[in-house]
Amino acid sequence: MPPQGFLYENVADNIARRISSGALLPGERMPSLRALSSELGISISTVMQAYGILESRGLIETLPQSGHFVRRSPQRSLELPSITSPDIERVSVPGNRMLHDFLRSVANPLHLPLGCAAPSLDYLPVKRLASIMGRVLREQPEAAMNYQFPPGLPELRRQIALRSLNWMGELSADEILITSGGMDALNLSLQALTKPGDTVAVESPTFFGLLQVLEHHGLRALELPTSPQTGIDLRALDEAAGMRRIAAVLLIPSFSNPLGSLMPEQSRRQLLELAGRHDFTVIEDDIYGELHYSGRRPVPIRGYDREDRVVLCSSFSKSLAPGLRIGWIAASGQRRLELEQLQFNSTIGAPSLQQLALAEFLASGAYDAHLRRFRRSLRDCMEQCSYSVREHFPRGTRLTRPSGGYVLWIELPAGLSGLRLFQAALAEGISIAPGPIFTSQARYASCIRLNAALQWNEQVGNAIRRLGEMARELG
Ligand SMILES: Cc1ncc(COP(=O)(O)O)c(C=O)c1O
User: Fold this and answer.
1) Which of 113, 196, 308, 444 lies 20 to 30 angstroms, CA to CA, from 453?
2) Ligand 1 center to residue 86 CA distance, Å?
3) C-alpha 405: how far from its chain's center?
4) Domain-located, residue 94
5) Which one of 366, 400, 421 terminates a domain?
6) Would you say the CB of residue 317 lies under 6 angstroms from ligand 1?
């Protein structure tokens, strides 16, 4: 099979094989950029990119004024955080005072944004989107300035439904409701499927926005033990559902925020079996589903659902541009009608200009081309970021290993406070997310979450090195 991927990735993989086979020995000097470029007939910048990847994988190192060398001692690997152990006998109405400080830190444009799960704008097709928007405004000004009532622009709904073919899904445009981003989709779904006082099960830790939505609707959060690799512990869910009625399970099965976990196919099917047995609905937040680093896109839980148990929510905020504020819900029949009514009551409808432009962007095929590039960039950023954490954080630190998405979860050695690190980092203009905002229980005090979707540069590298130093100083 011909090699896939970018040339620099293929070159990096080839050299990695030479290192693992022993053809290149530890401590051996790597060929100079110029020598390898003329040997392989590729540009010097391609060799530089390949060496960058090898460095981020911990296979080679650069010694000042001497060049590149095969690493003598492989970089230490960090253990994964253990499966979490929240109290499943406790349900609480979430409310997090710490969140205010965090949100202020991410809103400050002067802070380096390692706290907020947002990508570098260099990765987004900003110019292309802007030019489509300009054209839509010139050619269809009335449509762009008019209401777009629920369920949303038919062509956009059709394009979203078509994309479900990528996971052999059969969504129809009639099931799709266009929303103002993912948060709106989750808000509307919870409002339609639960009533105040109901219990909703979530991963622990989970995206703080989900906890906020639960609080907003007067719902109780039941936090479930969650593995950084495979997501929620289904045995604990089964046990908890035997103790009390659970109205809904609200989860991020693909490249979750903040653990980056990926629920295996078997668990997705088992969850549906539990949903049938205990009679709860699954609200699936698939916002990172398209952002796998290799292989195929995970099939959403909705793809295995034969009993109409799942309401699928997503958004273009993570995969295309957060500022578009366009998300969607897939729900059928009466549910969709109810959601439409709720949307009308809250925002009337999602913004028209964005819907028109996005429909055109999707129809042009540009989205898939963007996703292919973006996934590679995210994977490279994640590798660089993980490498840097392994290099600079104190011994005993634990680190997740996501296979998609944006975020890294770091568990500092026992006794070190993620909150104090958050404060110390802010004083140096670096924003990170402290662990306790991802729970409604008093947990994850020694954890932080980093946004790894930033284009790697000296500033980001220095910031992670500084975080590691500050963590050591706290010890
Ligand atoms: C898991 C998850 N769901 C939903 C959202 C919010 O999405 P949107 O910006 O489309 O409202 C986020 C944003 O960070 C998220 O991480």
Assistant:
1) 444
2) 23
3) 4
4) no
5) 366
6) yes
